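This part of the workshop introduces the protein records we will be handling. Each record describes a single protein and holds just a pair of labelled lines. Instead of coordinates, the fold is spelled out as a row of discrete tokens. To make this concrete, we reproduce a full record directly below:
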Amino acid sequence: MAQGEYANFAIITHSSSDFILDFARVLPGVAKAQVKSRVILAPEHAKRLLGALQENIMRYEKAFGPIRIPDQPSGGIAPFELPKGEA
């Protein structure tokens, strides 16, 4: 069985034929996010992934209550202020 990598930040880009999901780890005091994994999906698979995530979040919240995202001063959803630059 494959081991997982912890990621607390995702960078999503796309072209006309692919969606690219870079999963990164942002750490306090580190100037640059560390990309741990890249997943490249066809647009159809990206849309299926979106649906699967929505369904699983609904199930999670039904079982454990709402997922709360704390307000961020920068308007983002990262756990702390992100460094400037590329991952």
